[in-house]
Specification:
The protein is of the alpha/beta class. It contains 15 helices and 14 strands. It folds into 2 domains: 2-151, ATPase, nucleotide binding domain (Nucleotidyltransferase, domain 5, 2-Layer Sandwich), CATH 3.30.420; 200-248 and 278-383, ATPase, nucleotide binding domain (Nucleotidyltransferase, domain 5). It has helices at 66-79, 110-119, 127-141, 161-164, 170-176, 185-199, 252-260, 265-274, 277-282, 288-294, 299-323, 333-338, 340-347, 359-364, 388-403, and strands at residues 2-8, 13-21, 29-39, 46-51, 57-60, 90-95, 106-107, 147-151, 208-213, 217-223, 226-230, 328-332, 370-371, 381-383. Helix 10 crosses helix 11 (299-323). It is globular and about 55 Å long.
């Protein structure tokens, strides 16, 4: 089955054509046929695309919104790249927030689209773009093309109530459906799947801690292949320090800043989402690479890096307690995959739990998959680049086959 996957960001559209073929008891096998990215939608947009593992071709495009981006991608498929037309059997869409309603991936129909519209208030930067992409794909390809919505929040619906419920008046929890939804679920789900493949163990025997570190950051404790605790909460603002987001903080700070700085609640929320994190502490940049370069001579850049690593280390320790020990620690995301310095700082002083890095392996592991600990480490660490589109393709294939 050829599955076209759309992965919408607030101003981007990643896409990948994935061939999913059955592989008996071992499960389905996937192969990437083509992939690409429409970047800076609405402002000097560009598109890059590549067939298989080939070099990407880049070109400027006039695209104002996600609907136009989807139409362009489908047009390229219809015309064919390099003179070879590509057919597809189904379409999978990443949707950031499924709320309390969507606990698993679902086949898309009119009722699902209407429900996703209602959920846009929970993820105003991302869900509207996802819904626009879905509408454009349905309009262009027609009702006969099966489509699936895969949710970033679904993987975390296995988090138990005692970990997902906030200690506020319970009637408010029920009335407003407030809970720890968690995010980056497709990424964490992929890490569990890929770790099981790498170590040749059943997925239900995977007990790992995953650190997905990029501009947005999250940690997840996975027991038996299922999420049992995660750092992001009701929104993606909670948890680890991020590029521009504060992560955890005393809730009273919101009221304090509102009074002292004469800010509305919305303005404080914007400050915590857009002007905090690495950018807020350093006063210079949200880019970890730049901060690491400045850290030796700039105290605030150094402090930002130290806070970032300390918070991540604290979550690793907490999740070891939640799991009662783990098979491995997994790093992913732009920082996790490409910054040996950050990985080393996070793992420093963790010998007590068997977590040690091999300095040479760690230093050489840049954007590639593999072990970064000594072979004898009791708690080994790995780098695993994330492929969310593969998870979405597998979910799409499963639901389409089950619906026949």
């Amino acid at each position: 089955m050829k599955v076209l996957v759309f992965n919408c960001g607030s101003s981007t559209l990643k896409f990948q054509l994935v061939e999913v073929s059955p592989l008996g008891a071992a499960g389905p096998k996937t192969r990437s046929l083509a992939r690409g990215l429409v970047d800076r939608i609405g402002e000097n947009a560009t598109c890059s695309f590549a067939r298989g593992g080939g070099e990407p071709h880049r070109e400027p495009v006039a695209i104002d919104d996600h609907e136009q981006a989807v139409e362009e991608v489908l047009g390229w498929l219809a015309r064919g790249w390099d003179g070879a037309q590509m057919e597809l059997d189904a379409v999978g869409h990443r949707v950031v927030h499924g709320g309390d309603r969507f606990r698993t991936s679902v086949l898309i129909d009119d009722e699902v689209v209407a429900a996703l519209d209602e959920l846009s208030a929970l993820a105003p930067l991302h869900n509207p773009a996802c819904v626009s992409a879905i509408r454009a794909a349905r309009e262009t390809l027609g009702a006969s093309m099966p489509m699936v919505a895969a949710f970033d929040t679904s993987f975390h619906h296995t988090v138990p109530d005692h970990a997902a419920t906030y200690a506020i008046p319970y009637e408010l929890v029920l009335r407003h459906k407030i809970r720890r939804y968690g995010f980056h679920g497709l990424a964490h789900r992929y890490l569990a799947l890929r770790y099981a493949e790498l170590t040749q163990r059943p997925e239900d025997e995977v007990d790992i801690i995953t650190l997905h570190l990029g501009n947005g950051c999250s940690a997840t404790a996975i027991r038996g292949g299922r999420s049992v605790e995660t750092s992001m909460g009701f929104t993606p603002l909670e948890g680890l320090v991020m590029g521009t987001r504060s992560g955890d903080l005393d809730p009273a700070i919101i009221g304090f800043l509102s009074r002292k700085e004469r800010l509305s609640v919305a303005e404080v929320e914007a400050l915590l989402n857009e002007r905090s994190g690495l950018l807020g502490v350093s006063g210079r940049s949200k880019d970890m690479r730049e901060l690491l370069q400045r850290a030796p001579s700039d105290a605030r850049s150094r402090l930002a890096v130290e806070i970032f690593c300390h918070r991540a280390r604290k979550y690793v320790g907490a999740y070891l307690a939640v799991l009662g020990g783990a098979n491995a620690l997994i790093f992913s995301g732009g920082i996790g995959e490409n910054s040996p310095e950050v990985r080393a700082q996070i793992c420093a002083g963790m010998d007590w739990c068997g977590l040690r890095l091999d300095p040479e392996l760690n230093q050489s592991r840049i954007g590639t998959e593999g072990l970064i600990s000594p072979a004898t480490a009791k708690l080994p660490a790995y780098v695993i680049p994330v492929d969310e589109e593969r998870v979405i393709a597998l979910e799409t294939e499963r639901l389409v086959v089950e619906s026949r």
